[in-house]
Write a structure and sequence with these properties.
Number of strands of chain B: 2
Radius of gyration of chain B: 21 Å
CATH superfamily of the largest domain in chain A: Response regulator
Radius of gyration of chain A: 21 Å
Order of helices and strands of chain B: HHHHHEEHHHHHHH
Strand content of chain A: 15-25%
CATH topology of the largest domain in chain A: Rossmann fold
Distance between the termini of chain B: 52 Å
Shape of chain A: elongated
Oligomer: heterodimer
Largest interface: A-B, 54 and 55 residues
Largest sheet of chain B: 2 strands, antiparallel
Strand order of the largest sheet of chain B: 1-2
CATH class of the largest domain in chain A: Alpha Beta
CATH architecture of chain B: Orthogonal Bundle
Number of helices of chain A: 13
CATH topology of chain B: ABC transporter involved in vitamin B12 uptake, BtuC
Largest sheet of chain A: 6 strands, parallel
Structural class of chain A: alpha/beta
Order of helices and strands of chain A: HHEHEHEHEEHEHEHHEHEHEHEEH
Shape of chain B: globular
Chain lengths: ~375, ~325
C-alpha cells in the first residue's frame, strides 16, 4: 500500500511528528522530506548503535566524499542483503552518507536522481532489480561513480562497478555441509524468487553441493510464487513452507531470500535441534538470533568489505568499471561446532579452497 | 423418486466424497507429500478463514469492511510489540499478552471503522482504505527492527497427530486450532442464536429491525468490534508463523480473505471451505515445486488461487447475494 507518493509525504510528516515527540531508534525512510532533517535523524540513530556518524558538508567539494545508498524494494534493516551493503557504506571512508529505501520499483530512477541532485560522489545501488536504472543513471552522469551490488555488467561502463558474487560457490559449500549433515537424506531450500539470478545461483550451487558430498540426497527447493515486490518480504510464507518441507521429511533447510528466508529459519528453530537450518548473505547467527537453535552456518556473500573496498577505491581514484567479483564463504559454526562431527568439519575445510578456486565445479559436472 | 431439490442437496455430499477419495488416492500414491500438503492447507487456510469471518460479520450486519488487511497488520504489530516487551515474563504469559494486545488493537480498529460508517455515515470503502493506508504507514514507522518475541509452540494433538493421512493437520500452532473452533461457533451463532437473527435482520432490513426494538447502531458497533477481534487473531496467525513482525507482512491476505467471504456466499461454513481450497493451492504449489513435478514457473502456481477465485466468483458467485443493507448507513426515519 506504500505505493502512493502522497502517502510517503504523510509518512514523512508522521515521522517528523513522532521524532519531535521524543527519540525513536528506528532509522528513517527518506524519499520525501528534506535531507538535512533525515541525515540528522540517521546520525542520531547511528550514535545509539555506536556506528560511524555521517558528517555534514559540501558534497561538491573535492576532498569531501559523499556516498548515497539506494536500496532495492527490500528493507535497509533486512538483517541480510541490504543491511550488509549499508554497513559497508557506514564503515567506509565516506565522510557523509545517507540511504533511500525504495518503496516502489517505479522509483529507482527518482531515488538515484535525488542523490545526484545533491552532488553525491558515489552512489551505491543494491540489488539485481535496480540494475537497469543504475546503468541509465551511470550513462547520464559520467562524473558520478556508481557501485551496483549484485548487478552483473554486460557492457563495461567506466563509472559503474558491478559488485558480483559467485553465489553458486557459497551455495555449493552450504549444500555440501547439508548433504553431510542430513539423516533423512532429504534437504530443502526455501528461496526468494527465481526472477533474481543470484538466488537461482544459490539454489543450483546448493543442490549440486549436496549431491557432491551425498549422491543419494533428495533436494526439495521452492521459490516464492509472488513477484519481486513480495518475494523477499514474506516471512509467514517462508515459515509455512519450511514447515511443509519438514513435514515432507527434510532435516536440513537452506533459507535464502531476505525476510522470507528468515521466516523459514525461525520456523525450523522451533524444531529445537531436530532439523538444521542454513542462513544466507551475512552471518545470520548475529542478525537473526531467533534462528540460533537450528542455524549451523550461513552461505555468506561478503558484501560489506566488498562495498568498503570499492568506496576506498573511489576515494583514492583507483576505481574501475565493469564487474568486480567479491568474496563468498561459509560463516562460523558458532555453537554447532560441537554438534557437527569433526570429520564433516574437516571435509568442508578441505573442500572450501577447491570450490573457491574453481577446482571443484559448482555446476555438478 | 428423488425430487430435483433432493438431488441438488446431495451435490455437496458427492463433492465431499470425491475430495475424500482424491485425498486417499493421493495418499496411497505419495503418503508423505499428501500429509505435508494437508498440513499446509490447514495452516494457510486459518488466517483466510478468520479474515473472511471478519468481513462476513461486518457485512451481515450491514457494513462493508475492506480494512481487514489493515486490521491484521495492526494486530500483528501490536501483538509483536506487546509480546516483545513482556518477553521477560515467560513464554506463555508473553504470548497470551501478545494475542490479547493484537485482538484488542484490531477490535478497536473495527470500532473506529464502525464509527466512520455508523456515526459519521462515511463511505465505507473509504473508511476501509483509510485503515489500510494508516496501518501500512504507522506500523512501518513505529516498528523497531531487531526486537524479538518468544516463538509460538507447535501443538500436536495426542493420538490424532499420529494418524495416517491427517496426522500433520493436527500438528499446528495453537492459534490455528482457534480459527477452526471460531468458524463453527460463528456458523451456529449466526443461524441459531438471537444475536445471529438480530444481526441478519440489521443487515437485511434495518428499519424493520428497528421497529421491533433492536438498537441497530449499537448492534453494528458491537459486531464491528467482535469482527475486528477475529481479524486480530488472523493477524496473530501470521505472527505465529513468522515469529517476528515485518513491515507489510500481510501481503494482501486481508484482501484474499474478502474473496474467500464472497466465495463462501456470506456463510461461515462457506468461508471455511473457501479458505481450505485456497490453502490447498498454497500447499500444492510448494509441494509441486519440491518434487519438481512440472517445469512451470513458480509464479504460475502463485497465480492459481486468484484465477480460481475469479472463476468461482464468475460462475458460482452469481447467486451470492450480499445482505441488502450492506454498505448503507442506517438513518432513523
Amino acid at each position: 500500500m506504500l505505493k502512493n507518493r502522497r502517502l510517503l509525504a504523510l509518512l514523512g510528516a508522521l515521522m517528523l511528528f513522532a521524532a519531535a515527540c521524543g527519540g525513536s531508534d528506528t532509522t528513517t525512510e527518506t524519499g520525501s522530506g528534506d535531507t538535512e532533517e533525515t541525515s540528522e535523524e540517521t546520525a542520531e540513530a547511528e550514535t545509539e548503535e555506536e556506528a560511524p556518524v555521517s558528517a555534514e558538508g559540501d558534497c561538491s567539494a573535492d576532498d569531501f566524499l559523499c556516498v548515497g545508498l539506494v536500496s532495492d524494494v527490500g528493507k535497509i534493516d533486512d538483517k541480510s542483503f541490504n543491511q550488509s551493503a549499508w554497513e559497508g557504506v557506514q564503515g567506509s571512508v565516506a565522510d557523509q552518507f545517507d540511504f533511500i529505501e525504495t518503496q516502489d520499483s517505479n522509483d529507482y530512477g527518482t531515488n538515484i536522481q535525488t542523490f545526484i541532485d545533491q552532488d553525491y560522489d558515489v552512489i551505491v545501488t543494491v540489488g539485481f532489480a535496480i540494475g537497469e536504472a543504475t546503468v541509465e543513471a551511470a550513462n547520464a552522469n559520467p562524473d558520478v561513480l556508481f557501485i551496483g551490488v549484485d548487478q552483473f555488467q554486460g557492457a563495461e561502463i567506466a563509472n559503474l562497478a558491478g559488485l558480483i558474487f559467485p553465489e553458486d560457490q557459497a551455495g555449493f559449500l552450504a549444500g555440501a555441509l547439508a548433504g553431510l549433515m542430513t539423516e533423512s537424506n532429504t534437504i530443502a531450500a526455501v528461496l526468494g524468487t527465481d526472477l533474481v539470478p543470484p538466488v537461482v545461483a544459490f539454489q543450483q550451487g546448493y543442490e549440486n553441493g549436496a549431491r557432491y558430498t551425498n549422491p543419494d540426497v533428495d533436494v526439495i527447493s521452492t521459490f516464492h510464487p509472488g513477484g519481486l515486490d513480495v518475494a523477499f518480504t514474506d516471512p509467514a510464507w517462508g515459515a509455512d513452507t519450511a514447515r511443509q518441507a519438514i513435514d515432507s521429511g527434510a532435516d536440513v533447510i537452506f533459507g535464502a531470500g531476505g525476510l522470507t528466508g528468515n521466516g523459514a529459519l525461525g520456523e525450523i528453530a522451533k524444531e529445537d535441534g531436530a532439523a538444521f537450518c542454513i542462513g544466507v548473505d551475512s552471518d545470520q547467527w548475529e542478525t537473526v538470533p531467533e534462528a540460533r537453535p537450528c542455524l549451523i552456518t550461513s552461505a555468506m556473500k561478503l558484501i560489506t568489505p566488498g562495498v568498503q573496498d570499492l568506496i576506498a577505491g573511489a576515494q583514492s581514484g583507483d576505481f574501475t568499471g565493469g564487474n568486480v567479483v567479491g568474496a563468498v564463504g561459509l560463516a562460523d559454526y558458532h555453537d554447532f561446532s560441537s554438534v557437527i562431527p569433526q570429520e564433516v568439519q574437516d571435509e568442508i575445510a578441505a573442500l572450501t579452497p577447491l570450490v573457491l578456486s574453481g577446482e571443484v565445479a559448482t555446476d555438478g559436472s | 423418486m428423488a425430487s430435483p431439490t433432493n438431488t441438488k442437496r446431495l451435490i455437496p455430499w458427492f463433492a465431499a466424497a470425491l475430495v475424500l477419495a482424491a485425498i486417499v488416492a493421493a495418499w496411497s500414491w505419495k503418503s508423505g507429500d499428501t500429509e505435508a500438503v494437508l498440513g499446509r492447507t490447514v495452516r494457510a487456510a486459518a488466517p483466510l478463514i478468520l479474515g473472511g469471518l471478519c468481513g462476513l460479520i461486518g457485512e451481515r450486519s450491514g457494513i462493508v469492511n475492506i480494512g481487514i488487511e489493515g486490521q491484521m497488520l495492526i494486530s500483528a504489530f501490536a501483538g509483536f510489540m506487546a509480546s516483545s516487551y513482556t518477553a521477560g515474563m515467560g513464554t506463555l504469559a508473553s504470548l497470551v499478552i501478545g494475542i490479547l494486545a493484537g485482538m484488542i488493537a484490531a477490535a478497536l480498529t473495527g470500532t473506529f471503522m464502525g464509527w466512520c460508517a455508523i456515526s459519521l455515515k462515511m463511505d465505507q470503502i473509504i473508511a476501509g482504505t483509510v485503515v489500510n493506508i494508516f496501518a501500512a504507514g504507522f506500523t512501518s514507522y513505529a516498528f523497531i527492527q531487531g526486537r524479538t518475541q518468544p516463538t509460538y509452540p507447535q501443538w500436536s494433538v495426542p493420538v490424532l497427530a499420529d494418524l495416517p493421512i491427517v496426522g500433520k493437520v493436527f500438528s499446528q500452532g495453537p492459534l490455528t486450532y482457534v480459527a477452526f473452533v471460531v468458524v463453527i461457533i460463528v456458523q451456529f451463532a449466526l443461524f441459531r442464536s438471537r444475536w445471529g437473527l438480530r444481526t441478519r435482520a440489521v443487515g437485511e432490513h434495518p428499519s424493520a429491525a428497528d421497529t421491533v426494538g433492536i438498537d441497530v447502531l449499537r448492534l453494528r458497533y458491537v459486531n464491528m468490534t467482535i469482527a475486528g477481534s477475529l481479524a486480530g487473531i488472523a493477524g496473530m496467525l501470521l505472527l505465529q508463523s513468522a515469529s517476528v513482525f515485518n513491515r507489510g507482512m500481510t501481503n494482501g491476505i486481508g484482501f484474499i480473505a474478502l474473496a474467500v467471504m464472497l466465495f463462501g456466499r456470506y456463510r461461515p461454513f462457506g468461508v471455511l471451505l473457501g479458505g481450505l481450497v485456497l490453502g490447498f493451492f498454497n500447499g500444492l504449489q510448494a509441494q509441486l515445486q519440491f518434487r519438481q513435478a512440472f517445469d512451470i514457473p513458480p509464479q504460475f502456481f502463485g497465480m492459481i488461487p486468484f484465477v480460481f477465485t475469479i472463476a468461482v466468483l464468475a460462475f458460482a458467485g452469481v447467486s451470492a447475494r450480499p445482505p441488502a443493507a450492506a454498505g448503507v448507513p442506517y438513518e432513523k426515519e
